[in-house]
Design brief:
The chain is an alpha+beta fold. The protein has a single domain (about 25-170), classed as Glutaredoxin. It is built from seven helices and four strands, in the order ααβααβαββαα. It has a four-stranded mixed sheet with strand order 2-1-3-4, with helices on both faces. α6 packs antiparallel against α7 (about 160-170).
Length: about 170
Amino acid sequence: MKIKIITLFITAFLAVNYQVSAQESTDTLLKKAQEIAKKEGKSIFIKFEASWCGWCHKMTKDMKSEKTKKFFEDNFIIVPIVVKEAKGKEKLENPGSTDLLKKYKGDEAGLPFWVILDSDLKVITNSYDTNGQNLGGPASAEEVKEFIYKLKKTAKKITQKDIEDITNQFVSQ
């Protein structure tokens, strides 16, 4: 009887532990995002990131700030994809993240790297600027200006106030 209880306890513990650490695959994430994007008429904003990446954290903070959160939520299905994790933290990566990053030609770019898709999963734009450099988490006035140009091409609606709020939030002081 004790062995059955111990076995049951260990099995339950491992099952809970697996559920906590298992990441959804990129295929699953994109299918879910596509369903919602089609239903809500939004674009899909994929942001490749890693736990060690300070610029990734800054971009997330900027996109979720009080001033900008509504704009991003109203216009995009945001899909964070964990990739390029440090040794020992690979379990944080979404299965398929490296292949997806390569597919969108972001494997040579730094992080964050982002791509914006339409609801048919076709690329509208990505984080490469006109010089072929990764904008990543835009922070300079010039980078944010190009970021806004790309947002204008992909958002359902962007107002002058949205532009001012994004500029004020993203440009590093």
